[in-house]
Amino acid sequence: MVQWHMRDDKKPSGGKRDTINARDKKLAWKGGLEAMTKTDATIKTDKVETKKGLGNTLKVRALELKHANVTNGKGKTTKVEIVSVKDNSANRLYGRANISTKGAIIRVKFDGAEKLAQVTSRPGQSGVVNAKLIE
Question: Which residue in 120, 86, 82 sits closest to 103, CA to CA?
Fold first, then answer.
């Protein structure tokens, strides 16, 4: 389903805008629903979708992810499995539903132990979960 982010056809004074009648919709005003990237251990494989963007670009949206790229304090990055989302400061219901956004705290299996990591990427925009380990 497409969302249109358009200006209102009324002025703040209540009068009608004449410029809106030039055309109804522009591609630049076209938006979409948020990806709501689900991340936990029960997912079998990573599920991403590619959408067309402005300027002949492609946007990769992550819908379900099982793995994350986690960087430790020394700069080494490892692909690890996500256990669940512990906390999400964007919305407390996102943490309960295992939805990860930028800034979410996730539990990962790192070196045989379960550790916490903070998401540094935007999975709904970039298609991957990049995170840094919390010591």
Answer: 120
- Region for residue 112 given its phi and psi (left: phi exceeds 0; alpha: psi -120 to 50; beta: otherwise): left
State the span(s) of the chain assigned CATH 3.10.290.70. Answer: 36-133
Is 117 buried (19+), middle (13-18) or exposed (0-12) by CB count in 10 A? buried
- Please give the backbone phi and psi of residue 102, each rounded to the nearest 5 degrees, phi first: -65, 130
Over its length of 135 residues, how does the chain's per-residue pLDDT go in tens digits? 678 777 777 888 999 877 665 667 777 777 778 889 999 888 899 999 998 877 888 889 999 999 999 999 898 999 999 999 999 999 999 999 999 999 999 999 998 999 999 999 999 989 999 999 997
CATH top-level class of 36-133: alpha beta
* Residue 55 φ/ψ, nearest 5 degrees: 70, 35
**What is the C-alpha to C-alpha distance for residues 39 and 84, in angstroms, rounded to an integer?**
6
